[in-house]
Each structure stands twice: as C-alpha cells, then as structure tokens.
Amino acid sequence: VVLVMIFNLPLTQGAMTYNLEKINASIQEYNRYRVNLVEAELKELDETSFTVFFDGSFCETCGYYDYYEDLQVLLEDEFGVNSRITDIRHIEKGDLVRFKLFSNDPKLDS
After folding, report:
1. What pTM was estimated for this model as a whole?
2. What is the DSSP track for 45-78?
3. Residues pairing with 91 in the sheet
4. Mean pLDDT of the chain
5. Residues near 23 by Cβ (< 8 Å), separated by ≥ 6?
6. What would the pLDDT profile of 22-45 be if each residue is shown by its tens digit?
7. N- or C-end of the chain: fewer Cβ atoms within 10 A?
8. Residues of the chain whose pLDDT is less than 70?
C-alpha cells in the first residue's frame, strides 16, 4: 500500500511513515537553532536510509562536519531515530549527507 510520494520514492505503511514524521520533526528542530548559518532539508527517504541537503554559510571554525553530526545526535537523543552518516557529497550549493537507519534492536540490523 502506497501512502505518500516524497521525491519520487513511495512510502509504505509502518516504519517508513513513523520515520518520516520523526525525521521531519528533528529537521524542523535543527533548523530552528541553526537557520542563520545552515539549513537542512530532507531530500530522500527509503526503508534503510535518508538524505538531507545542508545549505548555508557554514561556520568552518566551528567544525564543518559538526553540523551533520548535530542532526544525527538530535535524531537519536530527542526523537529516538538511530542513524549513522554513511556519505557526504559536496555539491555546488551545499552538501548532501546520507544517513543509514538502524532499528533500536541490534538483532534486526544484521
């Protein structure tokens, strides 16, 4: 059963919808405190991963990659979404960062 289309990816019932809601909420919270330097936007989501576009001036003395790790920590600590950064692609207007999703049950992530 297809519920929603986001960036041409079909989202099915269950975990996908649950993760979409939590990821969107975490990105809104993330942007609330960082919008003057960087802004995050969800670009893709599938069963095992999602991609976020980061755009902005990036205070490089603050630790360039800290911006991505801050979202990962926010996802896990505040929204219960366990993820790890797997890829960072620098593009002309910002960065695309891929996060792999993990369940909270290590037996399911093998």
Report:
1. 0.78
2. E-SSEEEEEEEE---GGGTTTHHHHHHHHHHHHH
3. 94
4. 80
5. 42, 45, 50, 75, 79, 81
6. 999 999 999 998 877 889 999 999
7. C
8. 1-16, 59-62, 104-110
